[in-house]
Write a structure and sequence with these properties.
The complex is a heterodimer of chains A (392) and B (104).
Chain A: E1 3-10, H1 14-25, E2 30-33, E3 49-50, H2 59-78, E4 89-93, H3 96-111, E5 117-119, H4 121-127, E6 137-140, E7 145-146, H5 149-162, E8 166-168, E9 173-178, E10 184-188, E11 193-201, H6 207-213, E12 221-232, E13 240-243, H7 244-251, H8 253-259, H9 263-268, E14 273-276, E15 281-285, H10 299-312, E16 320-331, E17 338-341, E18 348-352, H11 358-373
Parallel strand pairs in A: 1-2, 1-11, 2-8, 4-13, 11-18
Antiparallel strand pairs in A: 3-7, 4-6, 5-6, 9-10, 10-11, 12-15, 12-16, 13-14, 14-15, 17-18
Helix pairs in contact in A: 1-5, 1-11, 2-11, 7-8
Chain B: H1 3-10, E1 16-18, E2 23-24, H2 25-33, H3 39-46, H4 59-70, E3 89-90, H5 91-94
Antiparallel strand pairs in B: 1-2
The chains are: A alpha/beta (392), B mainly alpha (104).
Chain lengths: 392, 104
């Protein structure tokens, strides 16, 4: 790592690496800097889903669908197994009010081109024989998929390196300036200085801290999620699962807060997600907490997550937990990612704020970063994601 | 076991280092060749240590392999990030309320 690059990317999570790969494919000389080590941030502390159903009809859903298409061919393109598969997904519905909300939600998604339906009790139980009797219906989409985030990152690195991409760990950025020629001059904690015409901030929940070095406010805050990982067991149902209240928690947090009488649960922002990894471990989630960068796994969370999963799938009480993890989703207030060139700062690009969608959105985000940096024409809809909207 | 047999086993790429996830010496060495220098990185690259025992069995061996291959002193190789629970625990044990069984 030395000297001059076309693009320097700050952050080697799945977004930074995807951007690095697509830029390298376009012939750019790319350096990816990370303050820590491989998989040490949010991309290594998340679940594995490419969930289309949780997305509101609009730009986010459209991009997620494009991202899924990219994932289909990505394993072959990168030359490695990404653990990609489509087991489908179902969102369980408990009462008539949620059913009405989900019906409207699903109709909008269908209009957007998503393959999703509401199914009745008998089809739901055929696909999910082990769920609690209280559920009256569910959604079903055969398209919801999953991928192993660590394998995807490994694939981007391997294929990127073949194209000349460099990735440097333990190289936290401590200073960013413009040099006399207008290039970005980046200084790392190890005292190394590197230069590039273009700079991409892809530091997830930590992007705000990088923004401070440039005196700009990138309004991303950490939203902590805690997950339980089980031992390997056979499938308990056909698809991955969520509950309608999870979607409500995600899309209409104000509604969820009104309803939750238990202050501990309210603080935890509890929602239900249940996915089986390619290796057979279940990932049971999750919480949505605003506690800064406190990464502790808490007892309140393991208790709440255990109660919740047994309520929904009673036989899970017999299964062992082997690990309890926490990570930080990069959250933006309006629920959309921040993607594009920073106004008034030529050559500075931001790709962050994916909250819980980073894995699903990684390929399309990287591709769009490549389009931005290479000054290609962009689809109109991505203007909605432009950083212009978050300027104070 | 004779000395030279021991030597031969040392070079056996197919020897399982992480038994839970069935990760071999060859796979771990390859991850180190590709740039991993810490236990956490080897774990995330290969899954060694992600299984039922959560690396309690294999992390010492993997630390030694990293030390041998990179020349780093063993004392400088940091332990893997440990997370609760300390051993596998049944979900039922974490639950509250009347239905909690007294079993594990």
């Amino acid at each position: 790592m030395k000297g001059q690059y076309d693009v320097i990317i700050i952050g080697s999570g799945i977004i930074g690496l995807s951007s690095g790969y697509y830029l390298s494919r376009s012939g750019k000389k790319v350096l990816v800097l990370d303050r820590s080590e491989f998989g040490s941030g949010s991309s290594g502390a998340c679940d594995d889903m490419i969930l289309l159903q949780s997305k509101k009809a609009g730009v986010t859903l459209e991009l997620a669908m494009e991202s899924l298409e990219l994932y289909r061919g990505l394993g072959d393109e990168l030359g490695c197994d990404l653990g990609f598969k489509q087991m489908g997904g179902m969102i369980l519905i408990e009462n008539q009010r949620d059913l009405a909300v989900m019906q409207e939600f699903v109709e909008q998604q269908q209009a957007c081109g998503l393959n999703v339906d509401i199914v009745g009790r008998s089809e739901m139980r055929r696909r999910q024989p082990n769920i609690n009797d209280k559920f009256i219906a569910s959604t079903y989409s055969a398209d919801d998929g999953q991928v192993d985030p660590l394998m995807v990152m490994k694939g981007f690195i391997a294929a990127g390196k073949e194209l000349g991409m460099e990735v440097s760990y333990q190289e936290g950025v401590i200073g960013i300036d413009r040099d006399g020629r207008g290039d970005w001059k980046v200084t790392t904690a190890l005292g190394v200085t590197v230069r590039a015409e273009n700079l991409v901030i892809a530091a997830g929940a930590w992007s705000g801290k990088i923004g401070e070095l440039l005196d700009i406010d990138i309004p991303v805050q950490p939203k902590k999620g805690q997950l339980l990982i089980t031992e390997k067991i056979p499938p308990v149902g056909e698809t991955n699962l969520w509950t309608a209240s999870y979607v409500v928690t995600k899309l209409k947090p104000e509604l969820a807060e009104q309803e939750e009488p238990d202050p501990v649960k309210k603080e935890l922002g509890l929602g239900f997600s249940f996915t089986r990894t390619v290796d057979g471990n279940y990932l049971i989630g999750s919480t949505r907490e605003h506690v800064g960068f406190d990464k502790r796994a808490t007892f309140e969370a393991v208790e709440a997550l255990s109660n919740q999963v047994v309520d929904i799938i009673p036989l899970m009480k017999h299964v062992h937990i082997i690990r309890h993890i926490a990570g930080f989703r990069p959250e933006v207030k309006d629920g959309r990612i921040i993607l594009g060139e920073w106004p008034g700062m030529e050559g500075l690009f931001v790709a962050t704020g994916h909250e819980g969608d980073g894995i699903a959105m990684a390929p399309i985000t990287g591709k769009l970063v490549d389009d931005y940096v290479c000054r290609r024409e962009l689809p109109k809809k991505v203007a909605e994601l432009n950083p212009q909207r978050v300027l104070v | 076991m004779k000395m030279d047999e021991k030597k031969e086993m040392k070079n056996d790429k197919d020897r399982l280092i992480c038994r839970c996830e069935e990760i071999t010496l060859g796979e771990i060495e390859q991850a180190i060749d590709e740039g991993c220098t810490t236990l956490n990185e080897v774990k995330r690259r290969t899954r060694a240590g992600m299984g039922l025992c959560q690396s309690r069995t294999c992390s010492k061996q993997i630390a030694r392999i990293i030390a041998q291959k990179t020349g780093k002193p063993l004392s400088e190789i940091m332990p893997v990030t440990s997370r609760p629970p300390a051993r596998p625990v049944k979900i039922d044990v974490f639950r509250t309320g009347e239905s909690n069984e007294e079993s594990n």
